């Protein structure tokens, strides 16, 4: 076997792992109406099929990265893939909705490690000068999973029933397990001391805080509802306890000195910002296309799918451009493109038609792919080898928080700008005003990202 085939097959296993984690988020939403009919459940209960996965995968991603550094990242990823496989079988065989929700929570636990460790392992599987391409491939697979989830899920549900959505995961996860087992490079546990048990209390406290915060943002209903306020209270208390404990811990979950070095905290900020900006197109786009341009749902969906498709197509080229230009320059160019696309959306698109919207959307998502790939590659290239799992987990967390916050904030800005009582009933002129306000704020966020990159480059 050639020396180049082993890393490529290892990367294939890692890419498939990331694809599965992305499919877990995007494919389940399309199944909610069918699950409601099968289990005779209302939407407030059905949404937990999505929230259980989202909350656990977001809450545990930092702890999974840190524990991977301490135990060995390949070892933990193999365990995560095994758990994801078993959880998928549980979901497919679920006789009731509570069992299905429990299976989704276990899937989320496995996905947390898959999200945290794949980029770290990919950057270790190739020479340093090829980090951009490896990171770009991971970005392509993540975007592909996000883009393909609804269509693949809809096809499977229509022809084979909702359990097939989860049965699909089993052979794919087994292939990933085989590739990572056979070709993945075994990494030694961190030599900095400490054990997984030592960071477990901090992991659980941070997980509780993040899960509470994520639920508070994603739950529907009035802002002052008991569920939302309770989630916020739990998140706040858990976060305070986490900071108090981690500051005294012999082996902290988050070594703050690590984040203060090489501009890593600003890198995480940029990851959050670009995710929030690209989420604007998904949070605001459906309302503008339907109410502002009067498009049918199927045509609006086709236009919106151009965004994830462009992100997937740009992944590997973005990695090559990052290697050619350097991570800082590529990140700046990507952010400039995102700012330009946001200004086009805000100032030009409202007076034009669907083709202009589609062009601005593709510029936005292509620029996002470049900025995100460069940002990630830069972080991984400077990361200490035995702390790449932690930094990869923090990067994934920042990105997820940006997506969650972006969806909530940009939808609220659209509603504020439109002035309509309900965004779904906005008149065309109102929808244009909402689009303008949301993307002007997105352009401002891109400017903040540019300042952060410029400061960290000094």
From TrEMBL:
Subcellular location: Cell membrane
GO molecular function, one term: transmembrane transporter activity
Broad class of the protein's primary localization: membrane
Transmembrane segments: 44-64, 76-95, 101-122, 134-158, 164-184, 196-217, 229-247, 268-289, 301-321, 333-355, 361-380, 401-420, 432-453
Keyword field: Cell membrane, Membrane, Transmembrane, Transmembrane helix, Transport
PROSITE patterns referenced in this protein's UniProt entry, alphabetically: MFS
Protein name (Swiss-Prot/TrEMBL): Major facilitator superfamily (MFS) profile domain-containing protein
